Amino acid sequence: MNEYLSHQEIIDKCRKLNETYELDPGFFEAIVDELLDSDKDTESVILDGFKRLLSEVDHEINRMEASVGMQPSCFKGCAFCCYFPIIITKMEAKMMLKEIEKFPSDRKEKIYQHWESYFDEHKTKLDTALGMDLNGEDTKLNYKRLNLPCPMLDPETETCMAYEIRPIPCRTYLNYANPKVCAENHMPDEPFSYEFLYEHYMAGINEIMQALYENGEELFVDYPSDVWSYDYLPAWIKRRDEMEDDSL
To answer: Domain residue spans in the chain?
Structure first.
């Protein structure tokens, strides 16, 4: 039987984490240095950096959890957090779309077909959600109340269709209490967010992009403007044709 943590136990462990754990940015920096020193082509450097820096966020969370004896209660098919608003940059959206293009044809086509039905099925909810203020005080709760699934959520399996390239918000929101708190509440108190790791991930990506840009390499993103352009993930996917034209 799983031994879930209480809310107070989670608070106590997070306090201990803040007091005793020291993050080593060298793990992120090493990825950047290795890729910029490699002989890989520009697109490979960007996309490998994107994937490896995302994975490093996972590794860093694992190290922090191990240091205080925490283990998430999240499990495959538990998709309650897949109804929160996911806000990413245009640069990240383009990287995600590039990676999906490289998926095996059957997997890729399944995603594309899902999007076709997704935007038709959820049109009314999407019109409401995508009109919400990105920085609004109640946006997160109001968005969650719409019960609008992420466009990457497989409706048959309740799993992510692009799990290995899921954005930072999806990786850094973890529950250590009984999973029922997520099932019974739109905004449960128990889950913990490691969103502070975003700055290390983004700093690494930005360093890669800046170095390539200054070297005169041809990029598939509009640097630096795409770094500062934010929107909801469904909004970027809805405009994917437009973004592909940007890259030509």
So the answer is: 7-246
- Contact of 17 with 64, CB cutoff 8 Å: yes
Tell me the per-residue pLDDT of 77-119, one tens digit each, with 9 for 90 and over: 899 999 999 999 999 999 999 999 999 999 999 999 999 999 9
Angstrom distance (rounded) from CA 48 to CA 22? 26
Closest CA to 84 of 187, 204, 227: 187
Structure pTM? 0.94
Helix (H, G, I), strand (E, B) or coil at 168: helix
Which secondary structure element, helix H or strand E, spans residue 100, and what is its range? helix 90-101
pLDDT tens-digit map of 180-190? 999 999 999 99
- The first and second tokens of residue 143, run together, are 């968005």
- Say if CB 96 and CB 165 are below 8 A apart: yes
Angle between helices 42-68 and 7-20 (to 10 degrees): 110
- For the four alpha carbons of 18, 21, 25 and 30, in that order, the dihedral sign comes to negative
How far is the C-alpha of 76 from the C-alpha of 65, rounded, in Å? Answer: 19
In this prediction, the residues of the chain whose per-residue pLDDT falls under 50 are: 1
